[in-house]
Specification:
14 strands; Aminopeptidase; eight-stranded mixed beta sheet; globular; about 270 residues; alpha/beta
């Protein structure tokens, strides 16, 4: 299931290109107020709700992909993908405190690879990056992944960026190859060049990413196992930006990796 909000200019931009690329046909959706289009097994839904507050009948969907805008203080133009969730008691942007959505590492990795391939094909200069886990929704019963255009209105409305993301989605949906091992990422900043590179190199499919700022804000250590448990198919490793992780959390991971049945990979 692919979802976007009618109030989100970037989501509308991506969806318009996606409808053309995949030749969706409008379909009724029962008594739902949402507008929907279908092509084969793919369902595209326009909602009036903000995506960070998304609460809809998932109709047994295997996963949800949210087409969205990205905001940043710098206003830097970029193309991103990430998993939603609130790693601490702060939940200012939807979802519940200390609750994370279910992550879909293979889809997230395919989207990142698709964004890079389409950016290069179209000659677009914007950076492609994976982001740390942040904002809502956190309670939907299936995995949720965001793919976004950042970071200002000019970028959100840019047709070439909309086309780039739409084609990346098409690539991700068509890719039936074997996914690299799934992992969580730990440490570093909100935008991790290290985790982005590992995914683009095909070494790991990284879902939830726990940044240093969440740990310094007092994130409970139980969030590591929560993120692992809230990952589609589970994880085989915790990939840790060692210099970008506070000491107390490094010690916890060293002591917990074996009991949790995962590899501890330092980068």
């Amino acid at each position: 299931m692919i979802v976007y909000s009618q109030s989100d200019p970037a989501g509308k931009n991506i969806a318009a290109h996606l409808r053309r690329a995949m030749q969706f046909a409008e379909v009724p959706l029962g008594e739902s107020p949402h507008t929907a289009w279908r092509m084969g097994d793919s369902l595209l839904i326009e909602t009036t709700a903000r995506l960070i507050d998304l609460d809809l009948d998932t109709m047994g969907a295997e996963w949800i992909l949210c087409l969205s805008r990205h905001r940043s203080e710098s206003g830097k133009r970029c193309l991103t993908t990430h998993t939603p969730g609130n790693l601490t008691a702060q939940a200012d942007l939807g979802g519940r405190p200390t609750q994370v959505g279910i992550s879909n590492p293979p889809l997230q990795a395919r989207l990142l690879l698709g964004l890079k391939a389409e950016k290069d094909r179209l000659g677009i200069p914007e950076e492609v990056t994976v982001e740390a886990t942040h904002h809502g929704p956190t309670s939907l019963p299936c995995p949720v992944t965001f793919v976004e255009i950042g970071s200002d209105e000019e970028a959100w409305l840019d047709g070439r960026l909309g086309q780039c993301v739409a084609q990346a989605v098409v690539r991700a949906l068509e890719d039936q190859g074997t996914a690299p091992p799934s992992a969580i990422g730990v440490g570093g900043g909100h935008y991790s060049g290290k985790f982005t590179s590992l995914m683009l190199e095909g070494r790991y499919s990284i879902g939830h990413i726990i940044p240093k700022y969440a740990m310094t804000a007092g994130m409970p250590t139980a969030m590591f196992s929560t993120c692992m448990g809230r990952t589609l198919g589970g994880v085989t490793a915790a990939v840790v930006d060692w210099k970008g992780t506070p000491s107390v959390y490094k010690e916890y991971l060293k002591a917990s990796a074996a009991p949790l049945g995962i590899d501890l990979v330092r980068i």
